[in-house]
Each structure stands twice: as structure tokens, then as C-alpha cells.
Amino acid sequence: MTGADVLMMSGASYDPEAARLLIQEVPGAVYLTRQQNHGEACVWCEAAGEGVALAPLGGTGGWRPHGCAACRQARLTYVCAYLAWRRHVLDCESCRTAWCPDGWSPALAHQIAYAATGRKARVFCACGCPLALTSRRLRPYVVTTILFSLRYNHTGPCHTPERPAPAGPEGTQ
């Protein structure tokens, strides 16, 4: 089952990027219990047992991650909010270099969806800088090629001082 199948089952409108990115929200197999890896427990909250409806999230081969309805919906909402914010940034010249007032609405929707997943409000930019999710210096990753994961970068240049290059052996530059 693919991420697209999962979206179709959830009743959400089909968005190929959201379908592809939903599986990226699943922790790696090495971080999951045997039950989580085999679809017997939610990969995010570990809910399992009778009365807990688990839905497939994708996966290949013997890896069959599942999520409970609440966790799956929270992650799907987060992915869709990220993509909506990213689409605004891609279409808005102002957002690429500075904070844009028109970008506030999709950014706020993203912050709310992110918080609903239970994550902390600090993210890392592609350059490695930690930023608060509410920072006006943060935007979705805006490379126009295929998006492989939900990443962030700065509006404008990175303000972290460059680290000096490590010193080589004596006599070399």
C-alpha cells in the first residue's frame, strides 16, 4: 500500500506530495518496537489492541507501519499545512528573502498542525541552525525540485558565524 492509497482511504483530497511525505513522518524501523514495525501498534503513540483502529501508512516488504486515526490525522494535517505554506513561499517573492505578512496565515496553520503532532517547537534549518518554529527567519525548504522531506531554511542569509576550517598538518593550508 502506498501513501497515495492511505490518503484515498482517509477521505483526504489526493495530493501526491502529501502522500509521498506522510511515510517520511514515520520513525525509522530501528526506533520502533516489533509491534510497531508489523502494524500491530501505532508508530507514534504505541496504541494497540481491541478498539484501536490502525490504518496503514505505506511501507515496503515486511515493514508495515500503521497509525491510529488521531495520530495519522495529526501527521497528515501537518504535512498538508507544510505544503500549503511551501506553495505560498514558492509563489511569493517577498517570502524568499524576508518575512511576509501574507505568509503569516499559512505559517500559523503550520505551527498549529506541528504542535498537534506532539513535537517540540524548535526545528533545524537545512544549514543546521536551530530556530523556534515561530521565528520570522524560518520558512519551508524552497528548492523547486522534488521535495523529499519536510525541511526548513532561513529567510535571507544564515546568520550563524562560519566555523573556521580545521587546521591541517603543519605546513599545509
Q: Indicate the proportion of strand residues.
A: 5-15%
Order of helices and strands: HHHEEHHHEEEE
Low-confidence runs of at least 5 consecutive residues: 1-12
Report the average pLDDT across residues: 78
Cα Rg:
19 Å
Number of helices: 6
Physical arrangement of strands within the biggest beta sheet: 1-2
Total strand segments: 6
Note the overall shape: elongated
Question: Could you characterize what this model shows?
Answer:
- With 173 residues, the chain is of the alpha+beta class.
- It has helices at 3-10, 16-22, 34-37, 69-91, 93-97, 104-116, and strands spanning 54-56, 66-68, 122-124, 130-132, 138-140, 152-154.
- Strands 1-2 form a two-stranded antiparallel sheet. Strands 3-4 form a two-stranded antiparallel sheet.
- Helix 1 (3-10) crosses helix 2 (16-22), helix 2 (16-22) crosses helix 4 and helix 4 packs antiparallel against helix 6.
- It is elongated and about 50 Å long.
- The N and C termini lie far apart (53 Å).
- The relative contact order is 0.12.
